[in-house]
Amino acid sequence: MPKLNIFIVEDEPLIARVLKQTVQYIGHHVCGTATSFDGAVRGLQHAGADLIITDIMLEGEKTGVDLANYINKYLKIPFVFQSSVIDQLVIDEALKTDPLVFMPKPLCSRVLIDAIASAL
């Protein structure tokens, strides 16, 4: 299986660490991390990401849905949502952005592994 460069956007440090460790454990590279929309946009410009894993709720005013719309418009990189959001309207808005996968929190390693495999 080829190694992917994966960019993680998560504002909860513990969850970000678990995501990073899991990605590395299964043999992929974390090419960057961010906690907000603005940080992600800056980081993604030079990260060389093959896949983005993003939460819906981020630091600041803009959300992961805003980031997904930006990715679709300017970057054309596949992305995966992972979130603890239970508001169906927010989930519906997120799904309209056409993520590869929507993973609910708490995160299951097997679901993450399958989501990354879908990017290949």
From TrEMBL:
SUPFAM superfamilies: CheY-like
Source superkingdom: Bacteria
Residues with 4-aspartylphosphate modification: D55
Keyword tags: Phosphoprotein
Domain Response regulatory: 5-120
Name of the protein: Response regulator
Source taxonomy: Bacteria, Pseudomonadati, Bacteroidota, Sphingobacteriia, Sphingobacteriales
